[in-house]
């Protein structure tokens, strides 16, 4: 994994191994994608200054009449979506279909930043709605630098 380590809270019960999700404030079944999500959320909060109170996991949206879930959404101080993050397991190569998925979610949320990570590779792009363009950033910006 290409993310900083953190104090991971695990537990085992009848359903299997679970990891504590600090945003949902509960233990979640540990899958390879959930492992990436928890590491990336920790990275955003502890290393990029993202306010935990403005972040949420598994946000439901309706897209073309179908219910979907965004992995993580970061809001601005007014409650508008600012960043959408899509996670894949470390074993999954990030492809065009991954970007197509997050762009479809953004058709509903209209966020300024889209991030895709598989824990090894992280891609961040900024959407310029005025010029109908986007550009990929070299790294995920600090929350304070988001426009």
Give the strand content: 35-45%
Which shape, going by the Cα principal axes? globular
Give the topology string: H per helix, E per strand: EEEHEEEHEEE
The unreliable regions are none
Order of strands across the main sheet: 4-5-6-7-8-9
Radius of gyration: 15 Å
Largest sheet: 6 strands, mixed
User: Could you report the average pLDDT, rounded to the nearest whole number?
Assistant: 93
Helix share, percent = 10-25%
How would you summarize what this structure contains?
With 147 residues, the chain is an alpha+beta fold.
Report on this structure:
With about 150 residues, this protein is an alpha+beta fold. The protein is built from 2 helices and 9 strands. A 6-stranded mixed beta sheet has the order 4-5-6-7-8-9, with helices on both faces. Strands 1-2-3 form a 3-stranded antiparallel beta sheet, with helices on one face. Strand 1 and strand 2 form a beta hairpin. It starts with 9 loop residues before the first strand and ends in a 10-residue tail after the last strand.
Protein traits:
147 residues; alpha+beta; 6-stranded mixed sheet; 2 helices; 21% helix; 39% strand
């Amino acid at each position: 994994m290409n993310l900083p380590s953190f104090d991971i809270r695990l537990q085992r019960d009848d359903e299997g191994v679970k990891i504590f999700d600090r945003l949902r404030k509960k233990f979640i079944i540990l899958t390879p994608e959930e492992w990436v999500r928890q590491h990336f959320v920790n990275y955003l909060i502890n290393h990029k200054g993202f306010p935990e109170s403005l972040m949420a996991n598994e946000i439901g949206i309706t897209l073309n009449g179908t219910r979907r879930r965004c992995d993580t959404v970061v809001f601005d101080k007014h409650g508008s979506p600012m960043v959408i993050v899509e996670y894949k397991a470390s074993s999954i190569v990030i492809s065009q279909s991954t970007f197509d998925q997050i762009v479809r979610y953004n058709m509903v949320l209209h966020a300024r930043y889209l991030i895709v990570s598989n824990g090894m590779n992280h891609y961040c792009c900024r959407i310029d709605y005025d010029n109908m363009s986007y550009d990929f950033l070299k790294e995920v910006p600090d929350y304070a630098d988001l426009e």
